[in-house]
Amino acid sequence: MAKHKYPDKPSACHGCPWFGDGTGFVKDELNKGASVTFLGAKPSESDELAGSAFAGRSAKMIEGNIAKYGVKRSDCNWCLGVKCRHKHGGGWENYEAAAAFCGVAHPLPPATAIVVPLDDESLKLAANLNEVETWRGSPIKADSGYGNGSLVIPTPHPNFIFNQPRMRTASKSDFARICRAATGGTDFLRYEDDFHCAAEPAWFLDFFEGYCKEDRFLTIDVETNMAKPIDAVMKIFGFGWAKDGAANIDWEMLTEAQLERLKGIMANAKAKFVTATPFDYSVLTKYGCRFDWSRCHDLTLLHSRYDIELPHTLEFIASTWTYRKFWKNLAHSDPYYYNCLDNAGEWEAFDKILRYCQVNDRGVLNVYEKDRRHIRTAVKLHLNGMPLSKEVFKAERKIYVRLRNELEAELIAAFTKDKVRMEDPGKCPIHTRYSGKTTPKLRKGETTLCESCSRVREYFKDQEPLNLRARSQMLSLLKAEGKVIPLTRGKKKKESLDKGAIEKLAVKYGDPRMVRLLEFKKRDTVVVRYYRDAKTSSNTGRVHATFSMHSAMHRWHCTKPNQQQVKRPEDLIVVDPESGEERKELHGPRLAYVADEDKCFLAFDGDGLHYRIAGCLSRDPFIINTLETYDRTGNLEHKPHIINTMALFHVSAEQAIDWMHHKASQYTFAKNFIYMLLNGGTVPALHLAAVTAGLILDVPEVKRLKDNWLDAAHYFKAWRERLVEEAERTGTVTLNDGRRRRFYNLRWKEGKWTAGADEIKEIYNLPLIGTEVSYVNPRVEKVLDLCETTANQWELILYDHDGFMLHGPERESRSMAKIVMPILNQPEDLGKGMILRVPWAPTVGPNWAMLKEMDLSKEYSAPVPVVAL
Description:
Layout: E1 36-40, H1 45-50, H2 57-67, E2 76-80, H3 95-105, E3 114-117, H4 120-127, H5 132-135, E4 140-141, E5 151-152, H6 159-163, H7 168-184, E6 194-196, H8 201-212, E7 217-223, E8 236-242, E9 245-250, H9 256-267, E10 272-275, H10 278-286, E11 296-298, H11 299-306, H12 314-321, H13 335-360, H14 362-372, H15 375-384, E12 386-387, H16 390-416, H17 451-463, H18 471-480, H19 499-509, H20 512-530, E13 542-543, E14 546-548, E15 557-559, E16 570-575, E17 582-587, E18 599-606, H21 609-618, H22 621-633, H23 640-649, H24 653-661, H25 665-678, H26 683-693, H27 699-712, H28 714-730, E19 732-734, E20 740-742, E21 747-749, E22 752-754, H29 757-788, E23 795-800, E24 803-809, H30 813-824, E25 828-831, E26 834-836, E27 840-845, E28 852-853
Parallel strand pairs: 1-2, 1-3, 3-5, 6-9, 7-10, 10-11
Antiparallel strand pairs: 4-5, 7-8, 8-9, 12-13, 14-15, 16-17, 18-24, 18-27, 19-20, 21-22, 23-24, 25-26, 27-28
């Protein structure tokens, strides 16, 4: 087959750094009377083959987007910053030099009224700005560059959404903005701002109070020293009342009397307040402000309920819902003006999303109203924090670092003991200064790589100490031993050394080093992840995490640190330094979370919450009957873990109970296996559970066990299949209470949207976690009410996914548990005749690591007064 001949480059291209690289010349497409210029950095391969700009599938996507608004291809110019596609250096080597040369040799046509850069390079060319993803959607009146004097509206190239499908909605909104400007003018992009920056405090308070007396939405935004809420220092307080109206003050200018007046204005306001996140409420609460939480709103929460797959930074929300130019670059140079822009931008974004949902999507507002009640909970969690002992924290970390380092040294010795080292080839006689630290390259005047330098390079790499975390080193070492490295799933398969791959190598080759390597990774994770972010506040001596509900699963998320996932305590073998004897000791990061003096942690967990939700939603008789029988009798033979062990292994109740008493691997495996299966675990992941439990099971055997259990829970199996069918048909799964999720990562295959393994796991997870949130959150809210009124010596300090924790006097723990239990044990009506019943269990202990079961049948000597609920 004849090789395709690319269009020749014209003589004007001589002297360009990209000339002579084998690629062809691509002409711009210019149309008479065009009002819009789409500007790309360089042509695609499709453009090169066609010899004209924007000839591939990306161009078809752009054409489809603009056609919806009456704009045709012939209404636009289609231009490129560089007219050929460089093949070397990843395609971008010397791009700026090539663009400068091309701009002189093949100048772009005069800019149209609107210029649309599609990538970082074309944005730099059009308006001398960086990062198209940052500026996307912004209407920029360019004062330099190719677009000087024109309106520049950047949007990421359609190729971008192939890698990030969730950006589809944002991309469409950009094209709507571009076409509206092209067909109807740019008046809608103009703002008549009424901003009062750094106002005089007395005037500001009168002004603010006037708006607070009206029943309307007001945004509040504070500027601080960028710390967590508990440590934040107030600098600017501002509010907004319209898309172009905002005012602010210097916080430090307020007198004590003015500060008290401001607190009174907010506490008694008829207005509804909106902030971007609970951060602002938390900071103001710390400073003594009080809010009517029924009138408080959260822009990011509303946006995430509108489309939970989109990014939820304020920058992104504003770029989608306002027509303002991106303003976050003003944060440091002009903070008062920046604060006014934040308030006005947040007001416009909230107003537009709210109005849109009121007309088109009431279901979003129904779920948002449920979730925004917990803004108060987020504020409490931000400010209350978690007691932590620095001394214990350091001591525990030291233990894990030592164990990690010892295991690392042992493994390095094991992996390198039989390695034959290269002999030193000496310095290269020609290039005497070459050390081998860098990859050899062609020198000036040379046509081939120097063999001596290549040997120096090989020797340098051979002498490097083994790094167990270095993927390339470990891959080379294992392949040199003849091991076949497992590949990742998906289209772009590559060699993997994740935990699952290491486990496969351990089983396949019977190599105990790989089992120890898996253990090392776990040890290293503990040191790196759990002992890094737990820093105490200088103001409180506690760890204050960041809590939010702005996520695809609706549930609470905790970061900096993630206290919901701090490693549970474990028995470690330690050596007595004096006697040399080995003994078991309880260790782990949680040991450092120690209750204050005369207080304790009182935790509440729903028993088998996800398992009960799965049975309730699927109406599966196998799951429902198991739970109802066990709740009624409490007998071991009816225990869910026993029933599941029987179903998995096809054994009798006597055998399963015997495994339980002897802590056999089969019983441990069954407990972990079922919960992994509920949450969509694939067979390789379930296989890892088997290896972790100490069972020698191959992948087919694990699949058979999975099928055994699903045959017993066949209603549950059919229900999950219907969820996947719904997602593949509509792209969405909607729960009974209106919570929903759009699945943008489904792949178009054989005439329908198809879910892969990762998407199926997310589809399986949504009903369990979404229902968990609807069930747990209202109960936490009632307990928080109790802590703020009758039992104000107790505080909510930690929110877990399916439970929560209180901190209060130890002498009152049993009585407090007795008060709380009736609140938690109330059945929940999920609709359509489904009643969810979950028994809750309280636990108590001197620290988070050692919570002990409570016996509520015994009276306590000093009970807290019981109130009527």
